[in-house]
Design a protein that fits this description.
The protein is α/β, with parallel strands linked by helices and about 400 residues long. It has 17 helices and 13 strands. Helix 12 links the parallel strand 12 and strand 13. The radius of gyration is 22 Å and the shape is globular. The chain starts with 5 loop residues before the first strand and ends with a helix. The site of uridine-diphosphate-N-acetylglucosamine has 26 residues, from helix 1, helix 11 and helix 12.
């Protein structure tokens, strides 16, 4: 067994950043390390914090809006950096792992000031703004796709293709066969719009499913995540179309929902795709058009090219188009099963383990040495070892 060390993870904002951080935390905790997660208020609200993870909430700012908003954001980032620095000094981590997004920024800046090696993880097929800003100084860059756009020059040597860590309960489904799908059996459809939900799915999906030929339509069973503002209208629409549907604003038991699903319809967020490919579920993806640098369209590309998904641009996503695509995929039970297999082939089930291995390679000082040498000497040793590993 490896020696217990301390690691700090920094993530916030949406489930897309938090869920890979939870998965890495679980793996590191299972290896006997102590792990602290630094997040923001929105991140703290995402369910699924693993037992034993210390959670710290820091102020964070987004560099958006007018001059006043940006100045306020800068102050919040600076204040967060100071608080993160105190935490790092007290906790003595071997490495800090950032999952992108503005909530991670103060902690990564503090890591630089404290000379703790920083590993950044990019979930998307385009490097995000904050990761781009941090990439050159990072000790390692973990990516989820073989091709990641907007990677700064000179970083290639420290890029490690890892994948997106998914939750353990999702990963256990990888060895289960695709649920039986026959010409007369149920067609179970799962619809989600990422962790925040997506209004366009509420508008288009019920009407699109209603347009399917009766031979498919009467076999439908839908589970759909909706924004709170849309849920009653969606309920009415399914009732009107006489399609059985279970609705919710956020399903905490996503693994069970995925296990049952024959077909997924939804956004192309990084964790959504990582889960679909871990489990092997065919999908119709509608990338969020306003995602920075169109990263959701880039995320969908590999799965679509492999034959595991169809990607529809939002401006082409109408009830007619959705019905046409579902018919093409589900008219033949074998075709849907094949697409499921193509999706499965795109999975990277070892992502949490591989990311934990990478993070552990930044040896730092073992906990016993921290106790023996005192904090200052240990941090110096940590910087030296990490430099050698990088
Ligand atoms: C709107 C937005 O900016 N989205 C971005 C955000 O992810 P966002 O959180 O929107 O989307 P992701 O697909 O990455 O993650 C969603 C996660 O929430 C879970 N879930 C969803 C619905 C539900 O009812 N229950 C549930 O558990 C999913 O299973 C998944 O694990 O960060 C991702 C990673 O940087 C990006 O790829 C997305 O483009």
């Amino acid at each position: 067994m490896s020696v217990s060390r301390h690691f700090v993870l920094a993530a916030g904002g949406t489930g897309g950043h938090m869920i890979p951080a939870f998965a890495l935390a679980s793996e590191l905790l299972a290896r006997g390390h102590r792990v602290a997660l630094v997040t923001d208020e929105r991140g703290r609200a995402i369910p699924g914090v693993p037992d034993g993870l210390d959670v710290h909430v820091l102020p964070a700012g987004r560099m958006q809006g007018g001059v006043f908003a940006r100045v306020r954001a800068l102050f919040a980032i600076w204040k967060g950096r100071g608080l993160a620095l105190s935490l790092l000094r007290e906790f003595g981590p071997s490495a800090v792992v950032g999952f992108g997004g503005y909530p991670a920024l103060p902690t990564l800046l503090a890591a630089r000031a404290a000379r703790v090696p920083a590993v950044i993880h990019e979930q998307n097929a385009v490097l995000g703004r904050v990761n781009r800003f941090l990439a050159k100084k990072a000790a390692a860059i973990a990516t989820a796709y073989a091709r990641v756009e907007r990677m700064p020059e000179g970083c290639a040597d420290k890029v490690h293709l890892i994948g997106n860590p998914v939750r353990a309960e999702v990963l256990t489904l990888r060895d289960r066969p695709y649920p039986a799908f026959t010409a007369n059996g149920l067609l179970r459809v799962l619809v989600t719009g990422g962790s925040q939900g997506a209004a366009i799915l509420s508008k288009v999906v019920p009407d699109g499913l209603a347009l399917l030929p009766e031979s498919i339509r009467h076999r439908l069973q839908v589970t759909q995540q909706c924004r709170a503002a849309d849920i009653e209208a969606v309920r009415d629409a399914y009732k009107r179309h006489e399609i059985p549907a279970e609705l919710g604003t956020y399903f905490e038991d996503m693994a069970e929902r995925l296990a049952d699903a024959h077909l997924f319809i939804g956004r192309a967020g990084a964790s959504t795709i990582a889960e679909l490919t871990a489990v092997g579920r065919p999908a119709i993806l509608i990338p969020l058009p306003i995602a920075t640098d169109d990263h959701q369209a880039a995320n969908a590309r590999d799965m679509a090219d492999a034959g595991g998904a169809r990607s529809i641009r939002q401006d082409k996503f109408t009830p007619d188009e959705l019905a046409r695509q579902i018919e093409a995929m589900a008219a033949d039970p074998e075709a849907l099963g094949n697409a499921a297999h193509m999706a499965w082939n795109c999975g990277r089930p070892d992502a949490a383990k591989d990311l934990a291995d990478l993070v552990e390679s930044f040896g730092g000082a073992p906990l016993m040495d921290v106790i023996r040498m005192g904090r200052g000497a240990a941090m110096e040793a940590g910087t030296r070892t990490a430099g050698a590993a990088a």
